[in-house]
Amino acid sequence: MKRSDAYPENWIFLGDSLTEGVGSERISYVSEYVKLLRARHSRCVEEVRLRRVNPVEFNPFLRVNLAVYMDHDERQANDTRCWLWNLASEGTTVDSDMHWLPFMANLRPARVFILRGALESILRPVAMADNVWPWWIPHAWRSYAAMDPRCYFSTTGWRRLKQLAENKAKQSLRLALMKHRPGKPLQSQEIFVAHFESLLRCLKELTNEIHVIGLPPVGGRAFPGSRQAFVAMNERIKKSALAYGANFIDSFELFEQQSSPADYFYLDEFHPNQAGARLLAKFLDAHCSSADSA
User: Fold this and answer.
1) Residue 148 and residue 256 share a domain
2) How do residues 198-222 score in pLDDT, each as one tens digit?
3) Between the CA atoms of 52, 58, 63 and 66, what dihedral angle is there, to the nearest 10 degrees?
4) Does 191 have pLDDT greater than 90?
5) What's the CATH number where 284 sits?
6) Does the global pTM surpass 0.90?
7) Mean per-residue pLDDT of the chain
8) What is the DSSP string of 133-158?
9) How crowded is residue 237: how many other Cβ atoms within 10 Å of its Cβ?
10) Alpha helices for the chain (secondary structure H)
């Protein structure tokens, strides 16, 4: 059944940095999707990025536990707005989405999109799990993502040289650690699936349209072994999605079908760049438009 444009809608996006976006501009498939919708529809499309923050660390003068950025549609205001809520946050795993359930229930979402499993599945040095590090490794490098490859480098000469040198040292060390001892994910498949299916059960109470986006491919050079882990996780994600009546959107295959998949990712071979975000947004748009016309 085609959805009517006669009333406001709320669409919710859940995920980690692949959905929130990286860098100060936070370019993601959500922001690119907003552009597509605005270009095609007369109705106003609002984008809201919302994330939980530590009230003690975020602002010493104001007690704030939410940070928000709103990209307002500047076109003529009307009462047929579509609100896209990006609730994704870097460094969070799927179990954190449960904290948003009361908020999502109040929004009464027409659609929910989920891209989860990447942060949980990426293989990193096993020292991240057992905390057995060589004594000489700086403590600042020991957090789960501290040694991840950079997405991009500064255009300022001296800053770029510093970033290149530090990144090279980190990558050499990270790959050496993973060669010495096989990498390990932040969560096992079993733990992830348990949290993921709990989330799906709760979301089914809120909406009939749940869209689960499969993990995009990850580079084997930057993250050895993670590509195979993503393929295996995608099979589990797809199985759970179909079991709970959600639509599964295969982004892995989408990127693999491109003539040069690497062109759609930042230098870390993990996060989609603007071209990749636009490609995924168009894919989601076609998928949802097809569902609306069915």
Assistant:
1) no
2) 999 999 999 999 999 999 999 988 8
3) -20
4) yes
5) 3.40.50.1110
6) yes
7) 91
8) --TTS-GGG-STTTTSPPS---SSHH
9) 26
10) 17-20, 29-40, 55-58, 101-107, 118-121, 127-130, 157-180, 189-203, 226-243, 251-256, 274-293
